[in-house]
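Structure tokens please, single chain.
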Amino acid sequence: MSKEIFTSRYAQLGEEFKIVNFKQSLRINTLKISHEKLIERMRRIGVHLRKISYLKDGYWIEKAKFSVGAITECLLGYYYLQEAASQVAVQVLDPKENEIILDACAAPGGKTTQMAQYMNNTGKIIAIEKKKHRMQSLCNNLERMGAKNVDVFLGDAKNCEKFNIEFDKILIDAPCSGNFVTDKKWFNKRKVEDFNEINKSQRAILKACMKVLKKNGLLVYSTCTLEPEENELNMQWLIDNFEVKIEKIDMNLGSPGLTNVFGKELNPSISNCLRFWPWKMGTQAFFVAKVRKC
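Here you go.
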């Protein structure tokens, strides 16, 4: 489908499309090393890091004369190469020590290992991955990063009731249509009709997860797409079908969730969600919602 169709959609949502070149970023793994020690260690080999103001452990890679994905510090699990916006979802979920948490769509494990870090390897993370070929990368990353409080299962999050567990918190980093920042061929691969097909699966995951979330428990829903069918319209569906509250995200960044989508008025509380337009944030596209079960 032509790029113009999508840029026209963004214009209808109040945004002007712009090409974005985003910086590489990483997350320091405090299970293994302090910020100060890694910053100094990287500086000595010619890699300069700059703190990302809105992230707890995130840094921009300002200068590097070589790939930082295959050096000793990376292989030892001192950091995880993780896109800046991607780190926000776990920061919003704010996992605590000794909590029981479901990671509904876990591979390749960036957010799973981030949660283990927040929890200081206490409590338990149940990590589900549907695709068998992605399990190896998930398990490898858990081992490399020293995440020891994670049990990994091959399966579909739509069947999470089988665990017979009520979870304190749930992260759904939902499989989505993706975005043009991280996939240069995205405009040619996608058509508008895709989004209503994809959101059927997303809603099935949401429905299953709501059943296993404790009352007053917290669910964070995130995607790396700009398309409202997979974001705000899913939140409206959730409000219409479950006793939930969309809570304000206490981070001074991004844009509010949309409350008017192509002429359709949505619940005002959806403005509490965060939407990352790449040309405003200098990151990939991202959406995150903080949902409280009432």
